[in-house]
Design goal:
Organism: Bugula neritina
Pfam families: FMN_dh
Cofactor: FMN
Number of domains: 1
Order of helices and strands: HHHEEEEHEHEHEHHEHEHEHEHHEHH
CATH superfamily: Aldolase class I
Largest sheet: 8 strands, parallel, barrel
CATH topology: TIM Barrel
Structural class: alpha/beta
Bound molecules: flavin mononucleotide
Shape: globular
Distance between the termini: 48 Å
Radius of gyration: 20 Å
CATH class: Alpha Beta
Strand order of the largest sheet: 4-5-6-7-8-9-10-11
Protein name: (S)-2-hydroxy-acid oxidase
InterPro entries: Aldolase_TIM, Alpha-hydoxy_acid_DH_FMN, FMN-dep_DH, FMN_HAD, FMN_hydac_DH_AS
CATH architecture: Alpha-Beta Barrel
């Protein structure tokens, strides 16, 4: 039955509807992971329960906050995601425009099909970050830095994890459609080609310091899944940490980001902002991540689902669902704003989780 898009009320509604819009191989690419089940990250949220307070004046809920000092209407940023041209030829223009209209952040993929310059001249853009890699040829990275600064980007989302080419078997990369920003340096399409734009696998923590030394813009390190890496990244100068397993796409088995978040917050939360992504499918999930210490969440696939169904309007509607549900959760939990100390008392755990998985460092705050 043909359904009207005005009937789509939840993120799950958008997922089901988008499935009908994608080519089957692309649907597999979006949903897929490196072996884990695509929804493992989302399922991990089920281990966290919210313990509401009964009485508080919730007549004035405030969802606004900042990401690296920039005001946002609520704490969400769109994840960097490549291959958006496979959904719509306007590609990154769509989520960037929706993010600007809804006053949240947007991160442009290192595998984008739009150049940074085209994005800022062809769209409405607000808070925006560039997903960057450290290439063997450091001048490629330096070129991206200079152009991002000139185009008015607000910082970088640095990918350090090794990319797993097997994670996108059905997708053909090409300079025109999947790495528009560095196509002047390489036309390689085969991963075996030495000029194929894979990140340098010999990077060390000192490369963060190098990146910081060539730019005044902040660097968010994406893909952290341990306190150890978070401490190293923060010591090397990272301005923020994005706890992420890249949507389960690069390596398996890995823990769900929501389970690692408290450990990372405990390790570096006093030094830099900590965000998380992976499986955030509702405002209640978003609230849970904030209660566990995240300053903001990043959201991936649901944005592509909104884009597939209704373009800019679909992404705006997905963002509205998150905000509405977050506001509802705040009202029900009697929480007015994001005060970290007060916040911790909202979280409780399922009995199984409580017994087996909560570290004492987290537990002592409850
Ligand atoms: C289709 C697709 C493409 C992606 N491309 C990138 C990318 O270019 N760079 C990157 O750092 N992460 C990439 N990711 C991972 C996301 O940035 C993010 O970590 C993940 O999607 C978050 O999980 P969620 O989809 O459950 O919200 C991609 C994810 C998807 C679904």
């Amino acid at each position: 039955m043909l359904i009207s898009y005005s009937d789509l009320e939840t993120i799950e509604d958008y997922r089901k509807e988008a499935k009908k819009c994608f080519e089957p191989s692309f649907e597999k690419y979006v949903a897929g992971g490196a072996g884990s089940q695509p929804d493992d990250n989302a399922k991990a949220f089920n281990n966290y329960l919210l313990r509401p307070y009964l009485v508080n004046d919730v007549s004035k809920i405030n969802t606004s906050t900042t990401i690296l000092g920039h005001a946002v209407d609520f704490p969400l940023c769109i994840c960097p995601m490549g291959m958006q041209y496979k959904i719509d030829k306007r590609a990154e223009h769509i989520p960037a425009t929706a993010a600007k209209r809804k006053r949240v952040g947007f991160a442009m993929s290192g595998w984008a099909s739009t150049t940074m310059e085209d994005l800022v001249t062809g769209s409405e853009t607000g808070l925006k970050f560039l997903n960057i890699y450290i290439y063997k040829k450091r001048d490629w990275t330096e070129n991206l830095v200079r152009r991002a600064e000139a185009a008015g980007f607000h910082g970088f989302v640095l990918g350090l994890a090794k990319l797993n080419p097997a994670a996108s078997p059905a997708i053909v990369h090409s300079p025109a459609t999947s790495y528009a920003n560095i196509k002047q340096f390489t036309q390689a399409v085969e991963p075996s080609d030495p000029d194929y734009p894979m990140p340098d696998v010999s990077v060390t923590w000192s490369d963060i310091a190098w990146l910081k030394s060539i730019t005044r813009l902040p660097v968010i390190v994406k893909g952290v899944l341990s306190a150890r890496d978070a401490i190293q990244a923060a010591s090397a100068g990272a301005d923020a940490i994005l706890v992420s397993n890249h949507g389960g796409r690069q390596f398996c088995p890995v823990p769900a980001p929501i389970d690692v978040l408290p450990e990372v917050v405990a390790a570096v939360g006093h030094q830099c902002e900590v965000y998380m992504d992976g499986g955030v499918r509702s405002g209640a999930n978003l609230f849970t991540a904030l209660a566990l210490g995240a300053k903001a969440v990043f959201v991936g696939r649901p944005i592509l689902w909104g884009m597939a169904c209704e373009g800019v309007q679909g992404v705006e509607k997905v963002l509205e669902i998150y905000k509405k549900d977050l506001t509802h959760t705040m009202i029900m939990a009697a929480n007015l704003s994001f005060n970290a100390v007060y916040f911790k008392s909202f979280i409780t755990f399922t009995p199984k989780f409580h017994l087996y998985r909560v570290s004492p460092a987290v537990y002592k705050h409850l």
